[in-house]
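Chain A, query sequence.
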Amino acid sequence: MCFVPCVCGTLRLSYLRRSVNSFPLFVGLRYTRSRQRTKFISVISLISVIGIALGMTVLITVLSVFNGFQREVRTRMLSAVAHVQVTGLGESLRDWQAVADIAAKHPHVTAAAPYVSAQGLLTSGGKVRGALLRGIDPAAEEKVSEIGAHMRFGTLESLRSGEYNVVLGAPLARALDVTVGERVVLVAPQGQVTPAGILPRLRQFTVTGTFEVGHYEIDSGLAVVHIEDAQRLYRMEDGVSGVRLRLDDLFLARQVARELLAVLPPEVSVSDWSRFNATYFRAVELEKRMMSLLLFFIIAIAAFNMVASLYMMVREKQADIAILRTMGASPGEVMRIFMVQGTLIGAIGVGCGIVFGILGALNVDSIIGFIEKVFRIKFMPQDVYQIADLPSELLAGDVVMTAVVAFVLSVLATLYPSWRASKVNPAEALRYE
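Chain A, predicted structure.
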């Protein structure tokens, strides 16, 4: 009585092989859709899918936040920092116009402007703050920086030679408790010799504007004056601290700096924007890599949960495997059946992870804002992270890399259970059936 069903089953198997040429795919999908005698295996499979999707969601979102963080810090920093900076030895450059003319001949240099840079103390009403004093030519400064575009009150044109006006970063002005029209006293560290001894040089400045580029360190520590006022205050005569250059592509700054160093006089040094905060950017990049590695382990753990679920599936389906073997299925076909099932679980997890990861990356500001509002906490203190908001920049490369790694781990997790399935002995499996 068993002969006819076996013959019919063998003929059906042969038909599937000839017509579809995807017998393992057909059976693997059939097992995936079929109801289990026990729901425990289904729960483990569901946990694997959720784990892969959750790991990918978190990883894509975190990578996007790191990308956005680097972009925002770099953009806001370069609003006030030159792409390339040429300085003289001892922070003094006499023939700066010749240096600017040579640098301007480089095809990637779009503008050049002289500057004076020095340290000083600002005081007002008993409040004292250290500041970086930068002397600029207002007409040329707009070509190399974006401070003028981030003015909250006043304009850079209010800085006129001989009037000793100053433009402060908004946090610095708040710390000194001054507004536009009020006065601050600048204490220069270079002293002047008098019969009473060495006394610091003092100069009163009128606040004519405030700016806020969005980078806390710059906003809270930069004071801008006219370049000729700075030269007189620091007794530099016609000299300047250096020349600031703007490029058409900021990512070519290191290359341009090397090329300029070869053609400029030997008594000058050339540095690019990446060197100004090299330690900071390296720390952020290292943190991004370590965080990515830790989150990849979440995906790996979820993927290897599939080993347990598929192995239990193999144990439950031993009788079916034995029947397939007696009907003519080869060990390789049995192995591919369970690989199809595991790969499908991994593909579902990867697909869900991509969808939710992209949604999370695109809406991270809303999610973080909701959490901050509910729990009344602040994830990004501006004095620590330099920016107040949590930015996000979704890159296709991050999504593809995460999806490929998660899918490969899912496929690798199917190999051992599938191999065990191919080694099932039909006689042993059917002995007690």
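Confidence is low (pLDDT under 50) at residues 1-13, 15-21. Residues 56 and 81 are 36 Å apart (CA to CA).
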